[in-house]
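TA notes. Do not distribute before section.
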Amino acid sequence: MTLPADDTARPTHPYSALTPDVVQDALGHIGLWGDGRMSALNSFENRVYQIHLESPLDGVDQVVAKFYRPGRWSDAQIAEEHAFAEELAAAEIPAVPPLRVQGRTLHHFGGFAFAVSPRRGGRRPELDNFEVLEWIGRFLARIHTVGAARPFVARPALDAAAFAHEPRDWLLEHHAIAPEVRSAWAEALEEALALIEAHPVLRSGAAAQNLEDGIQCIRLHGDCHPGNILWTPEGQPGAGPHFVDLDDARTGPAVQDLWMLLSGDRRQQTQQLGALVDGYEQFRPFDRRELALIEPLRTLRLIHYSAWIARRWDDPAFPINFPWFGSRDYWQGQVDMLVEQIEEMQGEPLVA
């Protein structure tokens, strides 16, 4: 695979047809009319717009319209995302479900599937504040209580098949890896994969089976990084966290929704994890065996990330925002990170 230069990214990508007029027409198709004020929000996987309405809908005068990347999710998988969000809202958990317009949450226009949600303001949470982490931990436990009530049927699991085997095969088949480091990358990945699959819960297809290690797999947010939590300060209406963007909701172990909130050195991560778990266990027990999954899950995300960018290179947004991708230096960096992760997976897990 030869990655095209910025100026040769193909203009025929499906999103090239998603003009501002098409966005406004899509909303008009379901009876919502913008007043002309529209701004694009930060999103690479989908296209997301904040739109002011001429007439409020159930008291909502600003909406966020998400146009799903064509070919990524089926309608059934998107419907499960929406149903999960509605379950969370019904349980008074501060998630942001899509609005039901004309009796539906999922709509189609111009070849795109889209949904409309009420706009929610907020800022990134201050994760160096242990009270904030404890607060988030409480709500994650409540999300997981709802998530454990029933399984996903259409949406996939977080496992080595989806996040390592398939991305590895695609990258090798499409010659996306710099040839100078291709062998080193493949060798490091195989060593890392052996350590990942030493955990039964992460083996391919394991989430749907009775596991020998007994770790429970549940419906998760799936991509619970700080950018997907909007924080409203105390003293304001709706104070605390709001969880947004369930686009990556999957089946997996609960710790997946905790580890991306950790940062810094081992001492700092231990303290942060302690605060999260303190809050979590006010509502739901946390299985300490899952702490050994943090570094394997981190490694799976690193592997998946490279394939995610490579597969979307014909989307003009990607060459512009990831100009460093695909170089020899990039792939050497991936080799180095895999080697570091191998060492981390062989070490003692974090404690809480």
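Switch to the second chain here.
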Amino acid sequence: MEIPHSFECETHLVHAGRDPASHAGMVNTPAFRGSTILSNSLTEWESRKLPGNPYASYGRFGTPTTRALETAVAALEGGHNALVFPSGLAAVTHSLLALLRSGDHALFPDSVYGPTRGFARSVLLRMGVDVEFYDPCIGADIAAQVRPNTRVVFVESPGSATFEVQDVPAIALAAHRVDAFVVMDNTWASPLFFQPFEHGVDLSIQAATKYIVGHSDALLGVATANERAWGLLQQATHDFGQTAGPDDLYLALRGLRSLSVRLHRHWESGMLLAESMARHPMVERVLHPALPGDPGYSLWRRDFKGASGLFAVALRPVPRPALEAFFDSLELFGIGLSWGGYESLCLPMDAPTRNVRPWTHTGPLLRVHAGLESCNDLVRDMQSALNRLQKWA
């Protein structure tokens, strides 16, 4: 279903990728399950194999459920087209494999998502790609690290675990001078709060597991490309045989419809929770780019339309029993990986791996996700747990 560009984002979220008339009037696009797609004639079979034909010749190349999500996400991000993957990391790794070859140079921010760093340092290096990390706050000065053979400049804003905001337009300008592709992990903000292609990005990735699915019940990734990167992404995805299951796709389409309502609530609760934690004497620093005073605040104000519910907290140094007491006293925050669902999470994190600028904070680092519970209850629960820490100070 084509949605006029004059409509606002919330309207796109409700209607994009839907075509009830094609599915017996069903409001939601059904979960199409199948591998074999039959043709009614030899002519139809041959037409389905032509490049660009919207009808797939095999289930691996997509179903109406697949295309519904891909179409909706591409429209939201402002890209040319999108492809789905079985996880966010799969979207990252296969996007990189689509663009890079032996002898290329690739730049990654020092605050990049840990598994992305691991892939770059192991698989890409093994492939003969020259991997280099850069200060995420470098901005236009990244031009000094861009080489004639730089093929990919990866950005993730804000950065994983430590939430540095990157000057994506300045970095993109330097990358495009040598015809490099700018690849972004846009999971934190989603296309609601950051429009990657308006800021010079060529390929945008989201772990749809997080806010798009929104209910912690499916694993999924999406990569959206502009016209320049689309052919490479599409070919590599087909070469590697990547696809996603129909039930996960259906759950992502379901979650997409309420994304705006949920994300605004996550934003509001996350800000209130972060502000309350920042005032507690056991907190050394809250890492949240939407807080005035954060090093990335001005860039966040300039480039973002909102914030999600995810941030980090650096605590003052405490002994291990104190940290155990803190987590034992939390009633509403679960300890678990991922985020973006309706439940609140609080996760202890190891000291971030850094190649450029070492992490110097010595106290525990917590990653906090504000869910959809009452914010007053979340604040009370967190303050009570922090007060237990204070007894060890």
